[in-house]
Amino acid sequence: MLCCGRKIKIEAAFASEPIWCSVCKSNIPIDDIPIKQELIQELQEWNRAFSVWLVDYKFKSTEEYFELETRHNQWGNELTERIKKELGHAFFIVFAPSNLSLYMYG
Ligand SMILES: [Zn+2]
């Protein structure tokens, strides 16, 4: 059912959904993941926030950018843990944090 199997990666993306196949890197439609609607909505909210905070955001300072990225990654990590709990051991799930700041300031 799921692309190459049950290995998925949660990674925010600009203009696409934040769930990926860990094997072939294809984007996976969020509705293909059997998690409750409430969690899907929060995942989409988190993904939208990524675009606003880190892609489109006109930041004032490097510190502010790093702070927003840290918040984004904490939130994403927390969402990933909740998705893991809901899907159980049938799926292998990893979280890929944003490292845009490395490209911008590194
Ligand atoms: Zn795949």
UniProtKB/TrEMBL annotation:
This is Uncharacterized protein. It comes from the Bacteria. It comes from Seinonella peptonophila.
